[in-house]
Amino acid sequence: MKLTKARQLFEQNDFSLALEILNEYISENSTSAQALLLRGRIHYKRQNWGGAMNDYATVLELEPENSEAKTGLEMAKSILGYFTPDMFNP
Q1: Residue 10 to residue 81: CA distance in whole angstroms
Q2: What count of Cα atoms within 13 Å lies in the side-chain half-sphere of residue 5?
Q3: In terms of Cα–Cα distance, which of 13, 30, 15, 51 is closest to 73?
């Protein structure tokens, strides 16, 4: 039920409330790849690259062949790779 509600909120772009519900759900169901994947998508949309990468990596530990998690992780790494060099070479 919580996962369905979080998914609906995500689709309505209500990321804050969806994230709140997901955090509570994941604390009780830490091996729910679906919940972690959705939370990763929310982090990604909010440009929280570290949070997205952590959730996508956890999904891949649970489901090594999950293509959405693989793609999301690679995209977040790519974005960080693009932004990070400026921090080291001002």
Answers
A1: 27
A2: 12
A3: 51
For residues 18 and 9, the answer to whether their CB atoms sit within 8 Å is yes
User: Please, what is the Cα angle at 45 between 53 and 60, to 5 degrees?
Assistant: 30
CB 54 within 8 A of CB 42: no
For the beta carbon of residue 84, count every other beta carbon within 10 angstroms.
11
What domains does the chain contain, in order, with CATH numbers?
2-85 (1.25.40.10)
Tens digits of residue pLDDT in 54-78: 999 999 999 999 999 999 999 998 8
Classify residue 14 by its DSSP letter: -
Which residues neighbour 59 within 8 Å (Cβ) at sequence distance 6 or greater? 33, 36, 37, 40, 66, 69
How far from each other are the two terminal CA atoms of the chain, in whole angstroms?
Answer: 48
pLDDT in tens, 8-23: 999 999 999 999 999 9
